[in-house]
Design a protein that fits this description.
alpha/beta, Arc Repressor Mutant, subunit A, Rossmann fold, 7-stranded parallel beta sheet, 3-stranded antiparallel beta sheet, 10 helices, globular
């Protein structure tokens, strides 16, 4: 590549990152014929703008936009299927439980099914908070963080201290993508961080996802199946069920 001014070089860095998903400082310094110090300065600038995420020795995309969906669109997709999944999840909740509810449309439906239960709920989901706020029988704890508008939820490591002090009975976790071999993934780094904190805070982890998310992977790996206790879905092949059960996952198919 030829000589670039700072703005032009930064735009080319973003273009290259979009194509490759991951870039190393040494690779960019070579391609742009500048020092690694200059590239690190560019990456710091782009990171502050939220256009990339700095890693040790390079950078990654902050979000896999191809797999990003907005809550306003997903809440009405496959509504009957999501309600059936949420009903299976709600049946696992008993009075006295401490429950973590993740973000997502299926999780919002689950929240609506928990009324009249005497439980403690922790959630980062604004729709779930809105649903449960008036229920005086539920002790509601809001997980904070950076607000991610597409999923109407708080994400990131801002709530790490809170979650590390919690011993939850069960986590109900949604996902953008799952694969029978690679596990659970999501398109946003801050979302991944929050999901990992939730997993670590929970005695039991239950993933709830319809089959439209199967055989797909997003940019960030969240968990392997060995970290999941229960999987609720609407359809699964015999071969995929056997893979999950081999990892000691209880599979519930509605």
């Amino acid at each position: 590549m030829g000589n670039w001014n700072t703005f032009g070089r930064q735009q080319e860095i973003l273009a290259a990152l979009s194509a490759k998903k991951v870039l190393a400082v040494s690779e960019m310094a070579r391609d742009f014929n500048v020092s690694e110090v200059t590239i690190r300065s560019d990456l710091d600038t782009l990171s502050k703008r939220g256009q990339l995420v700095r890693t040790h020795g390079g950078a990654v995309l902050p979000e896999d936009t191809a797999n990003s969906r907005f809550f306003s669109s997903t809440i009405n997709e496959n509504r009957d299927i999501k309600t059936a999944l949420a009903n299976e999840a709600a049946a696992m909740v008993h009075d006295g439980d401490t429950v973590i509810i993740d973000s997502g449309s299926t999780m919002a439906i689950l929240a609506s099914l928990l009324h009249r239960k005497k439980i403690t709920v922790l959630t980062n989901s604004l729709p779930a908070v809105s649903e449960l706020a008036s229920d005086e029988g539920i002790e509601l704890m809001v997980i904070g963080g950076s607000f991610r508008r597409s999923v109407l939820a708080a994400v990131g490591d801002f709530s790490s201290e809170m979650l590390r002090s919690i011993n939850a009975d069960i986590l109900f976790m949604g996902c953008t993508s799952f694969d029978s071999s690679r596990g659970i993934s999501c398109p946003n780094l801050n979302e991944k961080i929050t999901k990992r904190l939730m997993i670590d805070a929970s005695r039991k982890v239950c993933v709830v996802a319809d089959c439209s998310k199967s055989n797909r992977t997003s940019l960030y790996q969240v968990a392997s199946w060995k970290e999941i206790d229960c999987f609720i879905t609407d359809s699964i092949s015999d071969s995929d069920r056997k893979k999950l059960e081999a990892s000691s996952v209880k599979v519930i198919c509605t």
